[in-house]
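Review form for a predicted model. The reviewer records the input and the model, then writes brief findings.
Reviewer: anonymous (R2)
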Amino acid sequence: MKSRKVADLHQRYVRCMRENIIKVLSSGKSVVTYDELYSEAMEFPLVTPTDLEELLRALEPNIQIQLEGPRRKKPLLFHNDRIVVLNPMGLN
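Model under review:
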């Protein structure tokens, strides 16, 4: 169980990560690799890969998560997964 202070810090860092990821996705590129977003997200302490995946799922349908390979349900590092930005204006 997380302490209140750790939970508050986690929420703060997830908010910062969200702002950073949206900035990358809004930068004008139509395709961004998952690996690039992962490295941006993991710059923040207490942020987990699950936090990143939840953010990306929340941004659908403004983005599309393209997974490389059969029967995969979530993005992974080093698997050539991509995020296609469909509606950059809807990301904010």
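Findings: The domain at 4-91 is CATH 1.10.10 (Arc Repressor Mutant, subunit A).
Further findings: The chain is about 45% helix and 10% strand.
Recommendation: see findings above.
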